[in-house]
Amino acid sequence: MSLRQPIRILHIPPYYDNHLERAISRLISAHEHVEYQLFTIDKKHLAKNDLNLLLSMSRTIIQEEQIQMLIADSCESQLIVAKLGQEYPQLRSVGMNFLTTLHCFNRLLMIDLFGEDQCVLTLNVEISQDLKKDILCIEHFFDRKKTNGYVKSSYSFGNRVSSSGFATGERLTEMLPIHIEVYEEQYKTNLQSFFQVYLSQKQYPSLFKPSYLIQPFYDLTTYPYWRLVIANACIFDKEIIMWPLVDGYSGWPFFAQKPIATMPIMICPSRHLSAEQQNRVYTRFREHLDHLISNERLRYGWIESSYFVSTTNEIRLISMKPTYSVYLTEAFSLTNEHGNPISVMIQLANRQRPLKPILNGKTVYIHRLWAIITQDNHVMDNFINMSEIKRIHRSNFCLDQYAQLCFQANELIPISNRQAYTEIGFIQVNSKYHELGLTNLIEFRSLLLKTPQLIPFSHQSMLANDPFEFDPVTCLPSSALLSRLDEQRKEERRDLI
Fold this sequence. Notes:
The chain is α+β, with helices and mostly antiparallel strands. It has 4 domains: 89 residues, Response regulator (Rossmann fold, 3-Layer(aba) Sandwich); 96 residues; 141 residues, 2-Layer Sandwich (D-amino Acid Aminotransferase, Chain A, domain 1), CATH 3.30.470; 136 residues, no CATH class. It is 36% helix and 22% strand. It is built from 13 helices and 20 strands.
């Protein structure tokens, strides 16, 4: 008779390829007395990501396969987990209740939850047929100052370009109709029917109309040099266990106090923030978690929050995700003992207290891949050297290189006539030395990409405005960036004189 105890887990979509299957395989190897069985929903049913459809299919699998545990790695899928947790109290699930999860999924409700003074200044614009009126409203929001901001989705959809920057009124006028069409389609296809069934229009009137958000541009390259930092923690029976902070992007030149450009590199653990800034972020993050524990009855779960932090020590909450991030799962595992978020989620579901992560001295550099998809190249094999991917996946998990793709080799990548870029995966390397880590990441990118000219070396916030500040083949800065660096150094020398 086997002593292995089967735990049947349903992974709620949308999916980021097979990262969870691989993580579960490692858990089986590490805990031989426990058997994990992972269930998923076939991708062919997920073309539109209709939340009502996902909920219905999840119910069927829960009942037919006697599911015991739910795991999700995006805001919209965690919303499904919260709803199913209400319907099936026997399930081992973690996280906030349905309505509080909704407040994290909708950016405007998140601001209501924590207060405008804690968050990025935001204008909510209901989609109308009068584009000129909307643009006048946006220009008034900037109070006649330089129109420099972002248009964003009202919802935190995972793995999609949901925001674009604009620096002029002309650029805003050009891009706004495209984004409005995307946001309206997302709302009507994914959310509208779900809200109509499970929410009160009287209680949440703003959710029954498609809308988008406008926010000022928090710039890394001009004073007060806003940096993006990502904070993570798990909650066990109201106890907060912090994970290391992560740099959401890097400045160029690397580690410059006054960066000239934004590099598409996440760094785990954070290397850009001072000890004082890190303490301030942890304090603010703890305040937000205490609010959820005290007022929203959060007991067990994982929370990821993104913040802007300035050199003047001002902190603004950007978003709050009620589950772990796919991008940081391997990074936390490599840089910490007891750091794997998926192991932690399973421990929380079993009401076992996770151990506090302990840094081991390694640093991980992560780069997300955004590709220009056309009718001629919309198969993954056209972009990625799949033989190299297979080599990495066959190897053990202690390698210095790691790659995770959104699609299989011959899988068709969905084409959008309105969105120019689609995320196809991410890569990461680890190193104890910053210069070597950056070099290894660029070399790894060069090794993996078949068509680097179609995958800009650019942070997703810069894709709409200037995706080729860095050469996509060599990753070297453009001549314009080098000229700006030269001017900056001349000014610094004049200041010294």
